[in-house]
Request: fold
Amino acid sequence: MSSHQRSESRPETPGARARRPPTPGADERGTRRPHPGCDELQLLRDAQATLARLVPGLTEPAAPPGPEEHEILQEVAARLFDCAPYAHPLYAGQMMKPPHRVARLAAALAMWLNPNNHSAEGGRASGLMEQEAVAELAAMFGWEAHLGHLCSGGTVANLEALWIADRTRPGGAVIASEQAHYTHRRASELLKLDFHSVAVDRRGCMDVSALRRLLASGCQGTVVATLGSTALGALDPLPEILALRERYDFRLHVDAAYGGYFSLVADLAPRTRAIFAALAQVDSLVVDPHKHGLQPYGCSCLLLRDPSLAPLYRHPAPYAHATDPAPHPGEFTLECSRSGATAVALWATQRLLPLTRGGRFSLALAESLRAAGALDARLRADERFLTLDEPQLDIVVWAPRATLASEISTASRTLLQRALARGLHLSLVDLPAGLLRAHWPQVEFDARHVTCLRSCLVKPEHARWLERIWATLDAAWRAPLA
Reply:
């Protein structure tokens, strides 16, 4: 059974139940016992010891680690010092957050086996865990029957979605907004499909009127809606786009790589809630667990709502299933070899933090939204800064106030460096002057693009650290020029 097929676990036979080892940390009735307090590496040692008992040959005699390995790992640690402190609350730059501890440990544990989810033979247990984890992601969007699997990243997942779209409607164009991720244009070039860019409104969302005019001109194919644009965290107007589909009959793909998980947040604004609720009706979507899903890179997920599309993938590889004649997962994915450790990490994380509205995971996402709203309110009340509309997700964009667009760009870069010198990590984004004119009528736009400051408040800790973030930003602003 492929990871692309309806995500119901295979029925467990009595024989399989008899062979199944008891759950570690459970008594003979399956009741979990409290685990004694221990550190992270001890958790991994305990789990590895259990795995070694269950898997013959896992602990074959090997030479003990030598001094060379110690020296190399020490050198690795020293080299990694040059990375930004992504886990720290003062890192508010790019869309990066550390994976959850259970994801790190589960992935490390699986790497002792190094399963390959290309086939059942390469990753029987990890393949089943992938099916279960992907089914939970599909259920998050209201999907029961679906095709779905994990990919190495959003670029591959979106490329695969457009490849399938072209196989369902050969020769159709790809239509996306000006603020959509560049991967869609690049994927269209790889697939030799026409690409059309649609204007955005003042919030950076796809302009429905512009899309209607393009469709009315005879352009057909696949419309890509973005939920959580890279620059602004903008949400394309999905309900209105779905209404246009009723008339113009296009395929609708949603790039929710960044924003998809926010569908779990209970207290979204009514308009935002309506957008996420509409995901149940789209044809395909992509969500990235390695963004808000607390997973190591790379872990993306492609979901297709129509299970009957499975034959479009079929590319048999008889060598891959010598011990299992059933279709293997690699026959229903664009990528062949895929890390089983990625699936194990995601499964473990979703076991600890279920994808339920109002649960611990969704409450942490809500904290990120709260942090973004609070930072935006501070900026909006301070005459030193220029702001845009209120953030739609957890991305905040602003700029130092100046008369000329070129001066704003220079001041943004300067403030970025001053903040970095004080331990506050921000990022930069170049936005078209046409998008900013409605927000900043007092600015003289002497450049086609303006460099602004951008913060991705992706960690729930950002809400608790807002005072420290603001104090550091204020100190960076007041610092004398070097």
